[in-house]
Design a protein that fits this description.
This protein is mainly α. The chain is 68% helix and 0% strand. The chain has 10 helices and no strands. Helix 4 packs antiparallel against helix 5, helix 5 packs antiparallel against helix 10 and helix 8 packs across helix 9. The longest helix is centred in the middle third of the chain and has 24 residues. The chain starts with a helix and ends in a 15-residue tail after the last helix. 23% of the residues are buried.
Length: 200
């Protein structure tokens, strides 16, 4: 069905609001952003804002849910494939989705972002990764694998923040590969040769 004029106006309005919100969130925490300044930045009136969102937190929540839906849609081919899918492929998919939604990274990874949501994003492929790590570390207990994943998830948040700070100049594949190498080899990552083996 062809979109109506109202559908188009709704998309444009929500895009303007989102753009203004992410720009403001680069400068200050969400609790310091007023509806008035958001509307001024977006070039809309308060009534228009309230047609779409209850308040500033509802705006953030809706953006996050839309982003999560995009992530799940983009990653579903990986998450639904055979058991042997590599964690690095899942991580690459997550990083690529973030790069494709660079303006929204502020919502999750910036100084004033929602860190809880960042963890939700990183954990999108959690079950697949846990299965893969259990195979890789055959002698590890389920509890050890859980703790290991908690540790590397926090590390991935740091990598994502660094990546955002550099303007996402490095490819998603390269950042994901570095993340995977650090997870698997720790400090040995620095001794890993270009051929993919550790230099002893």
């Amino acid at each position: 069905m062809k979109p109506t004029g109202n559908d188009h106006r709704t998309r444009v309005t929500r895009m303007l609001i989102r753009k203004a919100f992410t720009e403001l969130l680069r400068q200050k925490p969400i609790q310091d952003i007023s509806i008035r300044e958001l509307c001024a930045a977006a070039g809309i009136n308060r009534g228009t804002f309230y047609l779409h969102y209850k308040d500033i937190y509802d705006l953030r929540d809706q953006i996050e849910e839309e982003m999560m839906a995009d992530f799940q849609k983009a990653l579903s081919p990986l998450l639904e494939t055979a058991q042997d899918v590599s964690p690095v492929k899942i991580t690459t998919g997550i990083f690529q989705c973030l790069k494709d939604n660079a303006d929204l990274c502020t919502v999750t990874l910036g100084d004033y972002g929602d860190k809880a949501f960042a963890y939700r994003l990183v954990n999108t492929g959690r079950e697949k990764c846990l299965t893969a790590y259990s195979r890789f570390f055959a002698a590890a207990t389920p509890k050890q694998i859980e703790f290991f994943y908690a540790f590397v998830s926090a590390g991935c948040i740091g990598l994502l923040q660094k990546w955002l700070a550099e303007g996402m100049a490095t490819s998603a594949e390269e950042v994901a590969a570095m993340a995977e190498d650090i997870m698997m080899y720790g400090m040995g990552f620095f001794q890993k040769g270009s051929e993919g083996v550790l230099k002893i």
